[in-house]
């Protein structure tokens, strides 16, 4: 599974990491529904850290697309919420 | 419930497929995205130049403020030596405001530096994908039938398209931040124009004006008080202590003078004797 951390790059995760990835991903979404920026970042950073530590960097000349794409590391809780509710970070 | 990544992936992918759908045959897909890539790379270059300009501007401001700080510190000492404590206090209050401003400038310059690095990195990654895409295209064309080649090339183009979307996003975010920095630099310039950082030579006979009263409220008086106390102590003892980093100029001269005398008196005779 290839995961892209927006503005940072792609990482390749093994199948065995998928369950934990999904769990952390869901936790990040749950926390962005609240108003607590710090709590959101704590859970989002955990997800990013998991991807960086368990994933292998995809080389620059690799043309494979990503299976999943994460928001940029500096995303704010408002942006994350908007992303989730439909107004993306990526314009038109 | 789909995760954060699910939503983002859908948005990016639909954007890429819209981009690629514009072309019907593989070579058009390639040419279209190739042209897009060139445009994007040019934009990244412009973006990097913009970030560097903003950084330089903040660095210049920082330099100016540092000089002003040294000047105010000296003036505070002079005022205190002349028994004008009010004047010394005003100078220290201004110095205090500058100090706070410098801290935030430091943080912003570091942030711009990080942005510059990230954009340079993005540019390199996009270039690498572009090169790979170009060489792969020829291989695919030679190996597959036209219909199969179209599928394969579209797959490869998706990878490049994703990189392009990502560089686009990185650029947009970097530009937004740079805009904020520019606003910040403008704000500092306005404060400067309003005389917030002026030294005392511009004050009418040391009188207090509106800015001074505001400054007195802004700056932490305890810090000013301790600065004042330190300077008083230095005056009383007749020589500056090493406490003030900005006062170190005068202090270190004195210290270095005694430091060079000491070895000459104590240590020097030994090597001289062994030399003879």
**Biggest chain pair contact, residues each?**
A-B, 38 and 38 residues
**Average pLDDT, all residues of chain B:** 74
What is the helix/strand order of chain A? EEHHEEH
Beta-strand segment tally of chain B: 0
Distance between the termini of chain B: 89 Å
Rg of chain A computed from alpha carbons, rounded to a whole number of angstroms: 13 Å
Give the ordered list of helices and strands of chain B: HHHHHHHH
The number of E-state strands of chain A comes to 4
β-strand percent of chain A reads 5-15%
- SS-derived structural category of chain B: mainly alpha
Largest sheet of chain A: 4 strands, mixed
Strand line-up of the largest beta sheet of chain A: 3-2-1-4
Uncertain parts of chain B: 243-276
What's the overall geometry of chain B?
Answer: rod-shaped
Oligomer description = heterodimer
What share of residues of chain A is helical? 40-55%
Question: What about the largest sheet of chain B?
Answer: none
* Shape label of chain A: globular
How far apart are the termini of chain A? Answer: 27 Å
Q: Tell me the strand percentage band of chain B.
A: under 5%
The number of helices of chain B is: 8
Give a verbal description of the structure.
The complex is a heterodimer of chains A (92) and B (276). Chain A is built from 3 helices and 4 strands; from the N terminus they run E-E-H-H-E-E-H. Chain A starts with a strand and ends in a 7-residue tail after the last helix. In chain A, strands 3-2-1-4 form a 4-stranded mixed β-sheet, with helices on one face. Helices cover 46% and strands 14% of the residues of chain A. By secondary structure, chain A is α+β, with helices and mostly antiparallel strands. Chain B has 276 residues and is an all-alpha fold. Chain B has a domain at 2-167. Chain B has 8 helices and no strands. Chain B is rod-shaped and about 95 Å long. The termini of chain B are far apart. The model of chain B is unreliable at 243-276 (pLDDT under 50).
């Amino acid at each position: 599974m290839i995961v892209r951390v927006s503005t940072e790059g792609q990482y390749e995760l093994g199948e065995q990491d998928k369950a934990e990835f999904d769990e952390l991903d869901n936790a990040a979404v749950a926390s962005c529904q609240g108003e607590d920026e710090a709590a959101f970042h704590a859970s989002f950073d955990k997800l990013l850290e998991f991807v960086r530590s368990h994933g292998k960097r995809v080389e620059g000349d690799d043309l494979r697309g990503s299976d999943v794409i994460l928001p940029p590391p500096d995303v704010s809780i408002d942006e994350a919420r908007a992303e989730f509710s439909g107004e993306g970070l990526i314009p038109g | 419930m789909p995760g954060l990544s699910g939503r983002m992936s859908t948005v990016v992918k639909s954007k890429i497929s819209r981009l690629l759908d514009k072309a019907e045959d593989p070579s058009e897909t390639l040419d279209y995205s190739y042209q897009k890539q060139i445009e994007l790379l040019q934009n990244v270059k412009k973006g990097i130049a913009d970030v560097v300009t903003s950084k330089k501007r903040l660095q210049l401001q920082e330099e100016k403020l540092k000089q002003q700080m040294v000047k105010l510190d000296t003036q505070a000492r002079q005022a205190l030596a002349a028994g004008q404590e009010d004047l010394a206090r005003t100078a220290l209050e201004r110095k205090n405001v500058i100090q706070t401003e410098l801290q935030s400038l430091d943080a912003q310059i570091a942030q711009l530096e990080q942005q510059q690095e990230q954009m340079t990195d993005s540019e390199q990654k996009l270039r690498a994908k572009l090169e790979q895409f170009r060489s792969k295209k020829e291989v695919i064309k030679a190996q597959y039938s036209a219909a199969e080649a179209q599928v394969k090339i579209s797959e490869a183009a998706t990878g490049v398209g994703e990189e392009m979307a990502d560089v686009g996003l990185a650029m947009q975010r970097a530009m937004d931040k740079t805009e904020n920095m520019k606003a910040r630099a403008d704000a500092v310039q306005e404060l400067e124009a309003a005389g917030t950082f002026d030294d005392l030579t511009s004050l009418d006979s040391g009188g207090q004006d509106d800015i001074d009263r505001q400054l007195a409220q802004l700056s932490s008086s305890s810090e000013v008080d301790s600065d004042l106390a330190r300077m008083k102590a230095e005056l009383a003892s007749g020589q500056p202590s090493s406490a003030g980093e900005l006062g170190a100029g005068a202090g270190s001269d004195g210290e270095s003078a005694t430091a060079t005398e000491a070895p000459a008196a104590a240590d020097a005779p030994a090597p001289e004797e062994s030399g003879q």
